[in-house]
């Protein structure tokens, strides 16, 4: 009970900082882009975000007022210049959302923001429309179970060299990750996913991992606001609630 009280107290602080865009994994000020409804850390080398952060709540998921806008465009907030539509044209790759448009139907501005090309990475069509889309839909179902579900998403590169598309050399990720942290009452739940950017994959739960594993492959620290021992508890194993 004592640990739960500590977790609850710290998590309330954590939630407040996240919602007000005051907490992110490490990102220098020149690369940090804070849109109204999501934040991202843009990597000029790969021409995409290292991470995109947003959150969903039951009210947001139930309040569907905006239709899919499909207004793909460069992100003017990226001072070095983001990827462009021409980079993806005839490339054989989809403009794969990191923060999903399907999470943004609660507001027309949120929906439109999700189509900035800074929120995309090159994904195989069978990945984007298959296992990735299935995971996004499942996350929205999980979102209805939590008071707030915080979501980090980004690309994974296993080497310092990679293939790319377009004049801006937008890097093709080896995989994509998600890190979820949910609050349900006074209890916290976390899980990660690392899914290879390949066609034909089916079972997203087969690619579930502890958050520690996502941190290992991305070199990012997702829950650093928490006291180290509490952070370790959350990151070392997957919460069973995501398997029900």
Can you describe this structure?
- By secondary structure, the protein is of the alpha+beta class.
- The chain has seven helices and eleven strands.
- β1 (32-34) and β2 form a beta hairpin.
- The longest helix has 19 residues, at 125-143.
- The two termini are 24 Å apart.
Reconstruct the topology from this structure.
Elements: H1 2-19, E1 32-34, E2 39-43, E3 48-56, H2 58-62, H3 85-88, E4 94-97, H4 108-113, E5 120-123, H5 125-143, E6 148-156, E7 164-165, E8 170-171, E9 175-184, E10 187-196, E11 208-209, H6 211-218, H7 228-235
**3D shape:** globular
Order of helices and strands: HEEEHHEHEHEEEEEEHH
Quickly count the helices. Answer: 7
Q: Please give the number of β-strands.
A: 11
Q: Low-confidence parts lasting 5 or more residues at pLDDT below 50?
A: 1-7, 17-23
Structural class: alpha+beta
Mean pLDDT: 90
The largest sheet, given as strand count, sense and whether it forms a barrel, is: 7 strands, antiparallel
User: Going across the major beta sheet, what is the strand order?
Assistant: 1-2-3-6-9-10-11
Alpha-carbon distance between the termini? 24 Å
**What level of helicity do the residues show?**
25-40%
Radius of gyration: 17 Å
Question: What fraction of the residues are assigned to beta strands by DSSP?
Answer: 15-25%
Oligomer: single chain
In short:
With 244 residues, the chain is an alpha+beta fold. Helices cover 28% and strands 25% of the residues.
Any descriptors?
single chain; 244 residues; alpha+beta; seven-stranded antiparallel beta sheet; two-stranded antiparallel sheet; 7 helices; globular
